[in-house]
Amino acid sequence: MRKKLTVIGALVAIFALMIGGATFALFTDTATNSNSELTAGNVDIACSRNNGDGHPGPMFYSTAEQGEVGGADINPTGENIIGLWAPGDSHSRYLNLQNTGSLAAKISKVTANITNSTALSATEYDEFSQMMNVQILYKWDTAQEKVLYDGPLAGLLNGWVDIPAADIPVFASGCLSEVLKFTCSLDIEAGNDIQGISPVVDFSIYAEQYKNNN
Amino acid sequence: MKRKITVSFIVMALVCALVGGATFALFTDSATNSNNTFSAGTLDVNVGAQTYEVDVTNLAPGDVVDGSFAVTNDGSLDLWYKVSAAGTGALFEDATPCTIAITNPIGVYNALASGANATVNYKISFPLAANNDYQEATGTVTFTVNAEQVANNPTPFAPVTAE
Questions:
Q1: In this structure, which topology does domain B45-149 adopt according to CATH?
Q2: pLDDT above 70 covers what percent of chain B?
Q3: Is residue A58 less than 8 Å (CB to CB) from chain B?
Q4: A134 lies in which domain range?
Q5: Phi first, then psi: what are they for A118, rounded to 5°?
């Protein structure tokens, strides 16, 4: 009798557990939106000379050959061949800037580099970089004129130079025809040390995202 | 306990540095216009030897000798040139010395294009009034040609003013 009572008690306990278990086995479901892709934008600028010929060559060249691109048969228009420089000479050329990235970009720094410095003596390098003045303007001759740089070439040869905050141009995404004006002027006081030399200079423009950075 | 606090501070500093770094990790790009070449010209003037139409080793008072020499612009830039002459030696000294006059070109300065040449003409006059003290005297004529670039130089050979 005692054994029978024990078995009944156990069955009651199991049944109670089953009932309890059923109480907590709720219907459930989940839903996922898995198509929310996040894509980062990009800052992507490019430049090309704007000498009326539409080629991506140098802005400044003394001979037609120097203005060619990679030795290709691209002859710059004659009127843009500067010829040989003499102290006191000043020439302006133009650079097209394109913002092909998806984000607005601000032009925040500029720099330059003499790529054939080993072909120059220390005296030639110093005299040329001190006596060749460089001015870079945006929206020149307007009330919105911005001076990106105005000083001797030497000031651009030691890395990126910050553009004054008030003169930083901002280019919208997709703009293809913003133009910078470069004016190079060889000081009338330049001495005989630079006679006959041919320094080769790269000019570089640095862009940053404008969004969240102004 | 003290070490634990130190470690915490280091971790906090690293977190701050990471946050700070993230603030300046902007999207950037750069573009370069390459191979701009600035070829400077040259200024190179040269002169040829002096030539005379007569023998100048046996001059007598009253002689006038015509001479000339060439000036060449061997540089790549056009130049202004200015000729000056000087005589040294006994023939150019004392009471009645020989004189030198440049007859061509007549300008104070003249232009000479790159690669071109010009002739300078001059006269050396031995005064008729020269006395016997000049017998067997000698002299040397030296011409100096100074050159300056034509470009951006509307007033060549202007005196340099001290600043």
A1: Immunoglobulin-like (2.60.40)
A2: 83
A3: yes
A4: 45-209
A5: -70, -15
